[in-house]
Amino acid sequence: MKRVNDIVSNARNLSASSGSCRKPRTNAEVRTREYLTETEIDRLIKAARANRYSLRDATMILMAFRHGLRAAELVDLRWEQVELGRNAVLRVRRVKQGVPSVHPLQGDEMRALRELKRSALSPFVFTSERGAPFTTAGLARMIARAGEAAKLTHVHPRCFAVPCGYALANRGHDTRALQAYLGHKNIQHTVRYTELSATRFKDFWHFSEFGSMREP
Questions:
Q1: Domain assignment present for 5
Q2: Long-range CB contacts (< 8 A, 24+ apart) of 108-116?
Q3: Which CATH number is 183's domain given?
Q4: d(CA 50, CA 151)
Q5: Per residue in 169-201, pLDDT tens?
Q6: What domain range includes position 95?
Q7: I need a surface site. Which of 10, 126, 142, 179 has the fewest CB within 10 A?
Q8: Measured in Å, how far apart are the chain's first and last C-alpha atoms?
Q9: pTM summary value
Q10: Residue 22: inside a domain
């Protein structure tokens, strides 16, 4: 009996040992791109609207995408940063030594924020069911659930700041304006968005109405 126990014990140790030697998978192996497209953001928001706290969750995703907010910036958002008057704005405070900025709020954001504010009992815009400030861990769980419901794989909070940059670059905004909007201290962090923007290559090929190539 002792020999059997020794064999089982050795087998377990070998299994644990071999498991610990496995290299962790890189991000590139898990997902081919680190950001969501605008269409996928819309799917995620639609999925979040089916949650128990649908207004809060959908608004969090919308705000994160629209303003390029990191997880820490989003959960720390306070009502004192939101102005819902005639010229509604969001005063964005950046982490990681980012540059603060003032962003205009769009109509859908204003409507959602006004509805949230009607029942607000906290200085924080987004709170848990107990009224405590929302946490980055809670945000990650909520996004993962919404991603699963939207049939999107490996969705995480970082998927929002990045697509904001790409979406604005594809709308033709210049690098300096993007840098200010996203709060980048170093413009090199912004250049990647304009480098991968499809609008850079617009009209590289010129075709006549008959499909033949013409001179630029």
A1: no
A2: 108/62, 109/59, 109/62, 109/63, 109/66, 110/84, 112/55, 112/58, 112/59, 112/62, 113/59, 113/82, 113/84, 114/84, 115/55, 116/55, 116/56, 116/59
A3: 1.10.443.10
A4: 14
A5: 888 888 899 899 999 888 888 887 776 666 666
A6: 31-198
A7: 10
A8: 86
A9: 0.75
A10: no
Q: Any bridge partners for residue 104, and if so which?
A: 89
**What are the beta bridge partners of residue 103?**
90
Buried b (16+ CB within 10 A) or exposed e, 193-216: bbeebeeeeeeeeeeeeeeeeeee
Number of domains in the chain: 1
What is the Cα–Cα distance from 49 to 120, expressed in whole angstroms?
19
Neighbours of 64 (CB within 10 A): 26
Any domain includes 16:
no
123: which residues sit within 8 A by CB, 6+ positions away? 78, 79, 80
Half-sphere exposure of residue 64: CA atoms within 13 angstroms, side-chain side = 33
Q: In the prediction, which pLDDT does 109 show?
A: 96
Q: How open is the CA angle 180-185-188, to the nearest 5 degrees? A: 95
**44-53 pLDDT tens trace:** 999 999 999 9
Asked if residue 131 is part of any domain, the answer here is yes
